[in-house]
Amino acid sequence: MSTSSLGIEVSHAPFDALAEGYDQGFTFSSIGRAQRSAVWRELRRTFKAGDRILEIGCGTGVDACYLAEVGAKVVACDSSAAMIQVAARRVREIGTHAVDLRVLAAENLATLQHEAPFDGVFSNFGALNCVEDLQAVGENLGRLLKPGGTALLCFLGPACFWEVFWYLLKGKPGKAFRRWQSAGDTAELAPQSRVQVRYYGVRSLARIFAPSFQLRSWRGIGLFVPPSYVERVAKRFPTLLKLAEWADLPLARCPVIRGCSDHILVKLEQVAS
């Protein structure tokens, strides 16, 4: 373990390897912008100015800064100290005092009990897919949110049609159907940096988060908009990507097909005990 120039202890979490290149590879990509804009539409509908929001797996701080811009106060946590370093630079650049960054894993949220209650909790783009005991996280969140508080959580979906099509086209059936494995999949983020990824259906998530939370609604994120590894194709055909964004607006809520999206965005309400 070492200490960075920002005074943050670096503990070499798996996602440290992605921190410096994450924004260039996803945040600023055309697909990344398209998928994030869909999530932000739900953020604006869910949280309001003055809300105090807990963010889990904040990464490089893009969503936390957006929430700050719309008037929320954010305690933004990530297990990766390297991600928090990048987020700290972003927070400093925009000059906001509404984002409080923490190096904190989702498994350790109970340490925030003395700061409760929060008005809501948010997690984006599969951070919670990498948690070993999701039920324990749900129980902790139930104690951290005020009665009736909202959890807006974006998970990697369990059956992405784009992924099946893309990797079968490349002759890689193992990757095409990796989300269908009950035990999940081991993702290699970088040499000697791996993480276990688990995939959940909406019914499973409703069971996992009960009785602390009740499922209110859900939608797909990235139904026709493809996963980020299709970026090279998306850049060649920007008009098609824009059409995919428009198609996602109504169809990513369609009960028949929304579960085939790259991500699923679930809205849960804290149930008063």
Task: Please tell me about this protein's structure.
The protein has 273 residues and is an alpha/beta fold. The chain has a single domain, classed as Vaccinia Virus protein VP39 (Rossmann fold, 3-Layer(aba) Sandwich). The protein is built from ten helices and eleven strands. The strands form three sheets. A seven-stranded mixed sheet has the order 5-4-3-6-7-11-10, sandwiched between helices. It has a two-stranded antiparallel ribbon with strand order 1-2. Strand 3, helix 3 and strand 4 form a beta-alpha-beta unit. The N terminus is likely disordered.
Number of separate helices: 10
Helix content: 25-40%
Order of strands across the main sheet? 5-4-3-6-7-11-10
Q: Please state the average pLDDT score.
A: 93
Assembly level: single chain
Major sheet: 7 strands, mixed
Number of domains: 1
Structural shape: globular
CATH class annotation: Alpha Beta
Topology readout:
Elements: E1 2-3, E2 9-10, H1 19-27, H2 30-46, E3 52-56, H3 62-69, E4 73-78, H4 81-94, E5 99-103, E6 118-123, H5 134-144, E7 145-156, H6 161-169, H7 173-176, E8 185-190, E9 193-197, H8 202-209, E10 213-221, H9 231-236, H10 238-251, E11 263-270
Parallel strand pairs: 3-4, 3-6, 4-5, 6-7
Antiparallel strand pairs: 1-2, 7-11, 8-9, 10-11
Helix pairs in contact: 2-10
Features of the shown structure:
two-stranded antiparallel sheet, alpha/beta, 273 residues
Short description:
By secondary structure, this protein is of the alpha/beta class.
